Amino acid sequence: MTGVNPSPPVRRLGDRLFAGSARGAGIAILVVLAGVAAFLVVDSVPALVAPAADVPGGKGVFSYVGPLLFGTVIAAVIALVVATPLGVAIALFLTHYAPRRLAQGLGYVVDLLAAIPSIVFGFWGIFWLAPRMVPFYAWAEEHLGFIPLFAGPASATGRTMLTAGVVLAVMILPIISAISREVFAQVPTLHREAALALGATRWEMIRMAVLPYGRSGVIGGAMLGLGRALGETLAIALVLSVSAGTMTFNLISSTNPSTIAANIALQFPESSGLDVHTLIASGLALFALTLVVNVLARAVVNRRADFSGAN
Amino acid sequence: MAKRIDISDLDIFYGDFRAVADVTVSIEPRSVTALIGPSGCGKSTFLRSINRMHEVLPGARVEGKVVMDGQDLYGADVDPVDVRRQIGMVFQRPNPFPTMSIYDNVAAGIRLNARRMAKTDLDGLVERSLQAANLWREVRDRLNRPASGLSGGQQQRLCIARAIAVEPDVLLMDEPASALDPISTLAIEDLMTELKERFTIVIVTHNMQQAARVSEQTGFFNLSSAGQPGRLVEFDSTEKIFSNPEQKATEDYISGRFG
Ligand SMILES: Nc1ncnc2c1ncn2[C@@H]1O[C@H](COP(=O)(O)OP(=O)(O)O)[C@@H](O)[C@H]1O
Ligand SMILES: [Mg+2]
Question: Helix, strand, or coil here: B61?
Fold first, then answer.
């Protein structure tokens, strides 16, 4: 060893500024999140400790929030089940089947859907979609009535849970398809050509190289979409015909649970005192639900992280 | 089963740009044919036109004939997918499917062929292919691990195993060792010597010693000037090309005077 002094690594000002602001931003997010959580918890307490009879509905806060939570999940699940395959299919069409010019135009139109305010979707749902769904609901009750989802009685207005879910699906479609399109377009040529050179048809190439590579991105897109679906307020408030306290898997009747966000929007203007705290408690439930969903999504993505193609 | 390939008057285009012109050559079965030449002279382009991979790029097309054992590969009724199932390809950069395990990578082509195969048969085929690619001993304990965890040389041998698992007639290799260390390179050269017993092999290489070591026939591609199409300047037995080439350009290139 010669007598060379190991010089301490130089920390440049720019590095320090960047590290500092990145750390600051990270901490700020946590602080805001903690603040929101603390607010929700503190303001829910009065509803949680109040005598059951004083809470709206008269059976306590859990009986009030439960059906709302149920309705929220059902509507969001319908939206996801409809929108994910459709969004993935659109993204695949745009990236791998459509001629370039058409793909650009169509991609633009789909992105435009994302910019439409939800109230417009609400009006579309109630005035256009709902009446057109009525004949289908009648048919479903008659022929598929043995499935609990279509038990009926079929709604005469079409303002059902299924209609609401479909409206939500249209709303989250651009999110899912835009993110899927992005990840599908990023699949390295190398991997696509590996499949083609083995004698894969275009669809086989997509199954071998594109879908597995884009999997975590699609899940991420679906989760963003789910986030929007869980929190959507106005469209649901307009479209869904609700009766307080219902819990049913029947998707085609006029008797539906509301969703948390829509219920808050509808009830809040006429609430005061304990009613407000009850609504906030339902907000806390929504907050918790979103966290759980995100943790689950992350677990799904990480489960096969070794195989993600990111390494 | 190894097959011979007869190429005549082949022109290869990217849109309006003619990248390769006028190639006429015969490739013998059960032998290694090496293609050498300076960068950009169209070796990869030519190689990719043999298994119809060239045309997957937008605007890319060829004119001329590529005939394998009497069948015109560019015939109107020929599906490029079938051509690629008969003519396997190994790329310059190792490209195993990162989302698949080692086992699934090797099985990928077999599963494509939609042959229903018993699990034990498939296991056997995967093992034989990995053995043929000299990779079996290194990976037999971790067949279910992701392929992306292998070293570059191992990944390239995995790609070779994947290509030969479907028993192609011809194997095309585009600078298969150029991204690899010397030991992996030797491993792949040894492998080629073994594989030519069963396959017709065409290899593009930048490395002249490699061409001299592994091949029976050598073709020299050259470019007269930038913007001009590349041409097959000379094609002969490897021995002849490296000892006594007909063309001045070939001699200059192999003696390192340009390129
Ligand atoms: N995807 C492409 N689009 C347009 N031109 C290309 C493309 N790939 C290669 N070329 C052109 O074709 C010619 C031959 O390239 P290539 O076959 O890659 O040469 P080599 O493999 O001998 O280095 C070059 O002029 C190159 O610029
Ligand atoms: Mg090349």
Answer: strand
